[in-house]
Automatic annotation (TrEMBL):
Catalytic reactions on record: L-proline + a quinone = (S)-1-pyrroline-5-carboxylate + a quinol + H(+)
Swiss-Prot/TrEMBL cofactor(s): FAD
The protein's name: proline dehydrogenase
Oxidoreductase is among the record's keywords: yes
Involved pathway(s): Amino-acid degradation; L-proline degradation into L-glutamate; L-glutamate from L-proline: step 1/2
């Protein structure tokens, strides 16, 4: 049953008609738990609240199904406006983005043009940009672009997904550019030809990747709500004497706030991924697919 529900939500997240319907009706049915709002102002206020109790953030203006250069340009402008809003408000946050929203599927050149503008804006404000990893079909081009951009900018990193077989080799290959990586389990539906189908194998690989990247001496963002994974990482960090400026823990907005606060109290850096924008549906569906227990939260909201 859980697998069926997960597949349904993952399929809905890629459905353009469902996206349009969600935009029409706004942040309802519980999505507001996981999405900070539809405007920059709402997102900045959410970051202020996080900063007030010791958490930092990464802001993501949500966007998918970009099919025109005009839409890609609008998405790039929103990234720049987000960086400007962060600087103006003086909050502690950086930027996350998806390159498909910047026109990657239209042309790599268009995407690179937007990426350079965004990174230049971030650099001028002393900020950092994280390129989110998308589905498997975009994995190699994302890493190729990261490598190219790192020749010009040192304020950019990306994400590696532990459920992919290739990820260990990707981390080894990226060591020469000292890549700043967010390590995650992975939230897309991928075939067994490219991804571990069993959770136990994903978890084991995730632990291995965390240790590999930490041992390489590169900045490691450990993005998980899994306490067993977090405790394993904390133990390894203590044993190896890894300094606090070489890693951070990351979690999603609205999920396991108790654990976020506990880690802050223990002295760890905790960054919260704060998504916002009108194109929130795909992100919301992936959160439901990741943890179907969230569905009951949504169903309760339907009857309020």
């Amino acid at each position: 049953m859980e697998t069926l529900m997960r597949n349904v939500f993952q399929s809905l997240g890629k459905n353009a008609a469902a996206h349009k319907l969600a935009k029409r009706y706004g942040l309802r049915f519980g999505a507001g738990r996981f999405v900070a709002g539809e405007t920059i102002r709402q997102a900045i206020e959410a970051v202020r609240t996080l900063n007030a109790d010791g958490r930092i953030a990464t802001l993501d203006h949500l966007g998918e199904f970009v099919s025109s250069e005009a839409e890609a340009r609008e998405a790039a402008e929103m990234c720049i406006k987000t960086l400007e809003a962060i600087a103006e408000a003086g909050v502690n946050a950086n930027l996350s983005l998806k390159m498909t929203s910047l026109g990657l599927d239209i042309s790599k050149e268009l995407c690179m043009q937007h990426m350079r503008s965004i990174l230049a804006c971030a650099k001028s404000r002393g900020n950092f940009v994280r390129i989110d990893m998308e589905d498997y079909s975009h994995c190699q081009v994302t890493l190729d672009i990261l490598r190219e951009l790192r020749q010009e900018y040192d304020n950019v990193g990306t994400v590696i997904q532990a459920y992919l077989y290739r990820s260990e080799q990707d981390i080894r290959d990226l060591n020469d550019i000292r890549a700043n990586l967010r390590l995650v389990k992975g939230a897309y539906k991928e075939p067994a030809e490219v991804a571990f189908p069993d959770k136990a194998d994903v978890d084991a690989n995730y632990k291995k990747l965390i240790k590999l990247h930490l041992d390489n001496g590169n900045y490691t963002a450990i993005a998980s709500h899994d306490e067993q994974i977090i405790e394993d990482a904390k133990r390894y960090i203590r044993e190896r004497g890894i300094p606090g400026d070489r890693f951070e823990f990351q979690m999603l907005y609205g999920i396991r706030e108790d654990l976020q606060r506990r880690l802050v109290q223990e002295g760890y850096k905790v960054r919260v991924y704060v998504p916002y924008g009108v194109d929130w549906f795909g992100y919301f569906m992936r959160r439901l697919a990741e943890r179907p227990a969230n569905v009951w939260f949504v169903l309760k909201n339907l009857f309020k």
